[in-house]
Specification:
The protein is α/β, with parallel strands linked by helices. Helix content is 43%, strand content 15%. It folds into two domains: 146 residues, HAD superfamily/HAD-like (Rossmann fold, 3-Layer(aba) Sandwich); 52 residues, no CATH class.
Length: 203
């Protein structure tokens, strides 16, 4: 199968250090549980420009490059690589591109040509949505945490494995499977793979 994987809060724990950084900069305590919507500036009660400026600082001072992989994510990707074709699809801003390449190179066996930057919240550049990229690549499974990306992919018939977080807790779809860990994700991928094999054998 072809499997696409998001980075932030899917492969890496980005939210916790990022909210600590926002707390420091804005002088108010923020944590993951506060973030129940995708647009970060609304959670932070600041402008989009202020939120973006602090995010850029988080990147510029090296903290984005030092985020830690989620538990078992590295082992899972290495195992998946043996049987499947893997892609990274992220909506990080383009100015984070080299940091992203360096982080992937440090932790994961994914070549740069399989790392794709999708449209982000700022709509900069001529980038495609994750759903459109998945359709063009023939992706079978998208592993994601952002609700709008997940539902867009699910609506096109792509199976979505959704990492459970406060900002996606209300999302439901027949082609969406919610998981709390990479071990749960691996079980779901295996189940999807068996289902695909059965369907193929009937055609």
């Amino acid at each position: 199968m072809k499997i696409a994987i998001d980075i932030d809060d899917t492969l890496s724990n980005t939210a916790d250090p990022l909210f600590s950084f926002y707390s420091l900069k804005l002088g108010k305590k923020f944590k993951r549980e506060d973030h129940i919507q995708y647009e970060l500036h609304k959670t932070l009660n600041c402008t989009r420009e202020e939120s973006r400026k602090i995010l850029n600082e988080f990147h510029q001072n090296g903290q984005l490059g030092e985020v830690l992989p989620l538990d078992y994510s590295i082992e899972a990707v290495n195992e998946l690589k043996k049987k499947h074709e893997l892609f990274i699809i992220t909506s990080r801003p383009l100015q984070f591109k080299q940091t992203t390449f360096d982080w992937i190179k440090k932790h994961l066996p994914i070549k740069e040509s399989n790392i794709i930057f999708a449209e982000d919240i700022y709509k900069e550049g001529n980038r495609k949505s994750k759903a459109n990229i998945c359709k063009e690549l023939g992706i079978n499974i998208m592993i994601e945490d952002a609700a709008h990306h997940a539902i867009d992919c699910a609506k096109t018939g792509i199976k979505v494995i959704l990492f459970d977080n406060p900002w996606n807790e209300k999302l439901k779809h027949k082609d969406l499977t919610r998981v709390k860990s990479w071990k749960e994700a691996m079980k779901s991928i295996e189940k999807t793979g068996k289902g695909s094999t059965k369907r193929s054998s009937k055609t």
